TrEMBL record:
Domain of life according to the entry: Eukaryota
InterPro entries tied to this protein: E3_ligase_FN3/SPRY, FN3_dom, FN3_sf, Ig-like_fold
Matching PANTHER family: E3 UBIQUITIN-PROTEIN LIGASE TRIM36-RELATED, FIBRONECTIN TYPE III DOMAIN-CONTAINING 3BA-RELATED
Keyword field contains Membrane: yes
UniProt name for this protein: Fibronectin type-III domain-containing protein
Length: 870
């Protein structure tokens, strides 16, 4: 049998039967079952009868009858044969959703923690492997009734010294009506259960217990009874009756007294007193007693009281049962206070540099006791010091410092103590001139031209603020110079000379006058850079040597360790170092002649570099020109050579004997080597000659020819002839003929060689009819030497000629001249003119006439057709 625990979980279950095809197959099941076997199993699972239910008040036992599975449906391996599973669902509502309460192979299921007298619906379904049967019809059962539930503990309604009133709520009756309640109690809080006594039995839900003892605690419990039985007893409720008021307390005791408050204390009796009421009464006011404090504390400070005044107090105790009578009245007095501050504290008479007088009036409040004396104090900046104590309202303050500001105050003194101090009065004694300043000192080391001087203000300022300080400098010749005047206590002393001895003094000045000078401070200024050397002197000894000298400057306290000589060349923008050393002169060598050089010098010691001296300029002596360079051949022919060169440096003197930078040498022989060398000369002498240059003249080319002559120009051929050239000394003469076709009158000519030989005429063939050509010819010298090349002369002027057009074939439909188009007439006319043009100079007049006829023909060709068309 399967027993459910007291807290079992419920899950929502869909009331619809699961489809057989949607069930997941078991991992151990086989797919060998046929549809018929599944149908048989399903019918068997659906034939499970409704369960049997055995009902109690809070539990029900469900008995399930399992169907028998045929042996044919069981697996041959009984160890792994699955059993029929059952799923049990229930609900406590007719149409409510079912909840799963159990799923397993048990056939007896126990449902616990049910509600008594409550109806339930249960149903089951059988499951075999992956086949689920339908749910059975719901079985309806109702749990049996039971005794009522445990009631809640009674609640207190009212309590007094002699009765307690309680009420309670009805618990669940669990299917049987509650017939009455049992209320039990016992006297006290912790007694055995057998001590309970029944104080009420009935069906009401409240009860009042009378004739109880005051200040006594009682414990109550409640039980409900129906037709089935009695419920459990409720939790216990403890209630106490009220007691009697507390007795008269002792009067309050004074623990502390001040001028404006009294601290009162009293005793709290345990179990009797819960809170207290303290009242006070001030004498001679007529208000009577008034409440000062109400609460559970056992002490209270009464504030805002008058000093040295008597007050009456009384105390009352209270608890839940009432208030006690008032205690006996006691009188307590506040303490007396010190006197208030004296009034009108002023300076009486004239204030001098050493003393002044004070006067004042008595205080308005004496604190309740007589003033015995007065105390006067002065503060010079280091705290107040008492200077007077006596009964008179006046005192003298002497032995003061001049120009000091003092703060004075006064207070009244009584048996209670020293009273409040008056407001302080500031009094300043008359000042005098300030005292002597201490000896000044240096801050850091003295430098060559400046030092940092510091000093402290005088200990005695004379009673007036120091307005300014003065510092003076005494030179070695006893001349004095003021170097500072101002409020600061340090200054920078400038304008010093390096390595000099000086005396320094300071003095303070206030509104009264000037103090004494301090003791002098002797200072030696630090070493400085040397003075700039004097302008150097230059001695020009030759065109390439200059001697530079200078004088040693003042070293300003440090030995000169080095002189730096710098120079500026003509091709430089800045000075560069030439030499360094301790000598006072330097010989500059390897200089350029007739060149201007600048020199300046600088001295160096341990402190640094001096300024540069003024520069000096020296011009070296001129010398003969430099050697000529860059000699080259500009042009070479058979009988002349052109040589050029760059002008050399004249070294300060103008070059003469020819100032040009080129020379042409004529009347030379061909193929002959010549040697050239160039030198420059001026007043200082001749320059070095250049390196020799070897030049060989070329061979003489043939002379140019006249324009060739054109003869017998046909449609595709033409004969060209020319004059023969003069013979050369060596070699033979040949001729080179070039031809170029000219498409337009302004088109460029592209000559191509068509003939080279020794003849003076040549017939051109394979020409294009009606085409313009240009021809030219030149002589070519053929050298006999094997290594020599041919030398061509200049080409002759070009000659223009035209090949004739072929004659047109006659046709029977050829129009007459009068009907020929204008363009045909112009073309024929132009052809005739071109044929008449000959390159011979003797035919130039004919060319002019042909041009005129060409113009006239154009006009006629345009005008005549126009007139005919009218």
């Amino acid at each position: 049998m399967y027993a459910m625990h007291s807290q079992w979980l419920f899950a929502e279950v869909n009331e619809r039967s699961l489809d057989l095809n949607s069930c997941s197959s078991s991992t151990d099941s086989h797919e060998t079952s046929s549809e018929e076997e599944r149908r048989i199993v399903l019918e068997l699972l659906c034939s499970v009868p409704v369960p049997e239910v055995k009902v109690e008040s809070r539990r029900a036992v469900i008995h399930i009858t399992a169907p028998d599975i045929p042996d044919s449906l069981l697996s041959s391996d009984e160890a792994v044969c699955p059993e029929i599973q059952f799923q049990l669902q229930y609900t406590d509502k007719k149409d409510g959703p079912y909840k799963v309460v159990y799923e397993g192979d048990a056939t007896t299921i126990e449902m616990q923690d049910l509600k008594p007298a409550t109806g339930y619906y249960v149903r089951i379904c059988a499951i075999f492997e992956d086949i689920r049967g339908n749910y059975t019809e719901p079985v309806i059962f109702e749990t049996l009734p039971s005794p009522p539930d445990k009631p809640l503990k009674p609640k207190l309604v009212q309590t007094t010294k002699s009765f307690i009133s309680l009420k309670w709520n009805a618990p669940a009756d669990n299917g049987s009506k509650i017939t009455h309640y049992l209320l039990e109690y016992y006297k006290g809080e912790q007694l055995p259960q057998s001590a309970y006594s029944t104080c009420y039995k009935g069906n009401k839900k409240e009860f009042k217990i009378n004739k109880l003892l005051p200040s006594q605690c009682y414990t109550f419990r409640l039980s409900a009874v129906n037709g089935i039985g009695s419920s459990e007893y409720s939790d216990e409720t403890v209630v106490c009756t009220k007691g009697v008021p507390p007795p008269i307390p002792n009067p309050p005791h004074l623990s502390e007294s001040t001028t404006s408050s009294l601290l009162l204390t009293w005793i709290k009796r345990p179990g009797v007193d819960r809170e207290f009421v303290l009242q006070q009464e001030e004498e001679n006011t007529g208000h009577g007693f008034i409440a000062a404090y109400t609460g559970p504390e056992v002490s209270y400070r009464v504030d805002h009281l008058q000093k040295s005044t008597a007050y009456k107090f009384r105390l009352q105790a209270a608890n839940d049962d009432g208030k006690s009578s008032w205690s006996t009245v006691v009188t307590h007095r506040t303490r007396a206070d010190v006197a208030t501050s004296p009034c009108k504290l002023t300076v009486k008479g004239k204030v001098t540099s050493r003393m002044f007088r004070l006067s004042w009036e008595p205080p308005v409040e004496d604190g309740g006791v007589d003033v015995e004396s007065y105390v006067a104090q002065l503060d010079s900046g280091q705290g107040y010091i008492q200077v007077y104590e006596g009964p008179v309202c006046e005192c003298s303050c002497a032995n003061l410092l001049p120009g000091f500001t003092y703060k004075a105050r006064v207070a009244a003194k009584s048996v209670v103590g020293v009273g409040q101090w008056s407001e302080s009065v500031e009094v300043t004694t008359r000042p005098v001139v300030p005292g002597q300043c201490c000896k000044p000192w240096l801050h850091g080391k003295a430098k060559a031209h400046v030092l940092h001087l510091k000093w402290a203000p005088p200990e005695n300022t004379g009673g007036a603020p120091i307005r300014t300080f003065r510092a003076q400098l005494v030179n070695a010749d006893n001349t004095v110079r003021q170097v500072y005047q101002g409020p600061a206590t340090d200054c920078m002393v400038a304008g010093l000379s390096p390595g000099r001895s000086y005396l320094l003094q300071v003095q303070a000045v206030n509104e009264v006058g000037v103090g004494e000078w301090s003791e002098p401070l002797e200072v030696i200024s630090g070493p400085g850079v040397p003075e700039p050397p004097t302008q150097p002197k230059c001695l020009v000894k030759s065109p390439h040597v200059v001697v530079v000298s200078w004088l040693a400057p003042c070293n300003n306290g440090a030995k000169i360790t080095e002189y730096k000589l710098e120079w500026l060349k003509p091709d430089q923008q800045e000075y560069i170092l030439l030499s360094s050393g301790t000598e006072l002169e330097y010989t500059a060598k390897s200089l350029l002649a007739n060149t201007e050089y600048s020199f300046k010098v600088q001295a160096v010691n341990s402190s640094g570099h001096s300024p540069y001296s003024l520069p000096v300029t020296a011009l070296t002596l001129p010398t003969s020109p430099s050697a000529v360079h860059h000699v080259k051949v500009t042009a070479v022919s058979a009988n002349s050579i052109m040589v050029s060169w760059k002008a050399p440096d004249n070294n300060g003197c103008e070059v003469y004997q020819g100032v040009a930078q080129f020379c042409k040498v004529s009347k030379l022989q061909e193929c002959t080597p010549y040697y050239f060398s160039v030198s420059a000369t001026n007043a200082a002498g001749d320059g070095s000659p250049s390196l020799p240059l070897t030049v060989v003249t070329t061979r003489t080319p043939p002379h140019s020819l006249k324009a060739p002559t054109v003869k017998e120009a046909g449609e595709d051929c033409c004969t060209i002839s020319w004059q023969s050239a003069k013979t050369m000394l060596t070699g033979s003469i040949e001729y080179r003929l070039q031809l170029s076709e000219q498409e337009h009158s302004n088109s460029p000519l592209d000559y191509k060689q068509v003939y080279q030989g020794s003849g003076t005429s040549y017939t051109l063939s394979q020409l294009s009819p009606g085409t313009s050509y240009s021809v030219r010819v030149c002589a070519v010298r053929v050298c006999t030497e094997a290594s020599a090349d041919t030398i061509a002369g200049a080409y002759s002027p070009g000659v223009l000629f035209h090949t004739s057009k072929p004659a047109p074939a006659p046709t029977p439909t050829q129009p007459t001249d009068t009907t020929r188009p204008v363009n045909s007439q112009l073309a024929i006319f132009r052809e005739r003119v071109m044929r008449a043009i000959q390159p011979d100079e003797a035919k130039q007049p004919y060319l002019v006439m042909a041009a005129l006829l060409f113009v006239v023909g154009i006009v006629m060709a345009v005008v005549i057709p126009y007139l005919l068309s009218l």
